[in-house]
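Hi V.,

You were right to ask for the full record rather than a summary. Here it is.
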Amino acid sequence: MSSTTTFNPGNLKELNRDVTDHIVDFLHNDICSLKTCALIARSWTFSAHFHIFRTWPVVCRPDIPDRSARELLKWAASEAGTRHLSYITSLIVEATSKDGTIKHNFRIADLERLMDRLNNVQRVTLRNIVLQSGIVPAPTVQSAPHSRSLVRLSILSCRTSDMSFTPIGHLLCLFPKIDRLDLVGTLCSWSERLEWHPWFTSLLSGLRVREVYMQNTSLRHAGYEGLWHILERAKPLPPLRKLGLAVPRMPGFTPAFPKLISTHAHSLVDLGLDVFPNTLVPVCLGANWYIPALQQCTELETLRLNILTLVKNPTARAPPELWCADANTLESTITCLDHVPPQLQHIVLTVYHVGSLETDADMGALLHLSRWHELDEALLGLTFLTSVVIVLAEERLSVDVEGKTDYLPGSRFEASHRPYELLGPSELSNDRHAQIVISGLPRMSSAGRLEFARLS
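Predicted structure:
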C-alpha cells in the first residue's frame, strides 16, 4: 500500500464515517496495511472516527499471548510510530478464539506504557481478553503516573485474571475521568474485603464519570457490584448524567438498584432500566420497589424501558405461546409509567422480540398478550410528554467493539440508547412487528403520538 505522502487530502471529498470504518474493519491480516490505511483515512476524513490498530490477528496466537502489546509498543517507539502518534485517537485491544473462551492475557501495565506514548487516544476498547494486574504496588488515582481522561472506556466480554474486581479497579485508576464507561458481559466477582484496598478508597474521591452502562447475564459473577459501591459511596458524587442497568434479575442482586438511583437522582437526566421482568423481585423488595427512587429523579428527562417477547415455535400438538414472563414485563412497565416524574419529556420503549413472525399464529400470540390495553391507557395519560418512541428490536445482536453498537443478547436497554432513524408510513405498513405494536396500542396510534424506529 502506498505511503500517505502520495495523497493530497485537499483535493478529496470527505468520506462518510461509516464507510471509512467499514473499509478499515476488514483489514485484519496485514497490520502495516491497516496502519497505513488508517492514516490515509485520517487525511481524507478530518473529523471521522477511525481505527489505527486492531490486535485480532496477533492476540489470538496462543504461543505468544502478549505479542500484540509488544508489537504496538515497538511500533510506537519507532521512527514511523513517533511520526504518526498524533493521529491515533482510538485504541482497540481484542482477541477471539475458536471455542469462544476468553484466555488471552493483557497486562494493565502494558496498557499504561502504551498510554504514555499515545497522548491523543480518547477511546479505549478492551474485548475478549483476560485483564491482568501484576502491578506492585497497586496503583491509586493519585499514584498512577499516567492517569488521564477518556471520552469512552469500553470493557466488553472480558474476565479478570484472579476473577476479582481488582484489575478493573486498577484500570479505572489509570482513567479516573471518563465521559462514558461501559462494563458489559465481563466476568469477575466482588468481595467487601476489596473495600479496604488503596485503589478502592482512591476511586471514591477520584472517579469522575458522566455516563455508565452496566450489563451482565451471569448469576455467579457479580463483579459489577464493585462499580455500584464506588458510585454509591463516592464523595464528592461524580456528575452522573446517564445510567443504564441490565443485570441478573435475582433478589440478591437487585437491592442496590434503588439506592444507586436515589444517590444520583438529582443529576440523572437519562435512565435506562432492564431489571423489571422477574417474579422474584417483588418477593424481596415489594411490588413497587423502584417507584420511590424514580420519583426522586427531579431532573430526569428521558426514561428507557423494555418489553421482551419470545414466541415459542408451534409444534404439531401445541399452539405458539409467549414465555419469559411477558405479562410481568408489561405490568412492571405500566406501574412505572403511572409514577414517572412530571418533568419527564421522552419515553423510549424497546419492544425486543425473539422468534418467528412469519405465520398468523405467531402474530396472534403477540397480539393477544395480556395488558396491552393497560399500557395503551398509561401512555395516553402522559400528556406532558414530548415524544414516545417505540424501538423495534429483533433476534440476537452482537457487540460491535468499535463502539457503534455495544449491544449484547439480553441487554435490551442499550438498543434504545443507540442512534436510530424513525420509520416512515410506508415502512410501518410493511413491518409485521410494527403492526403488532400498533394493534396493541390503538388509542396512542390513532392519536398520532407514537413514533417508531427499528434496531436491525
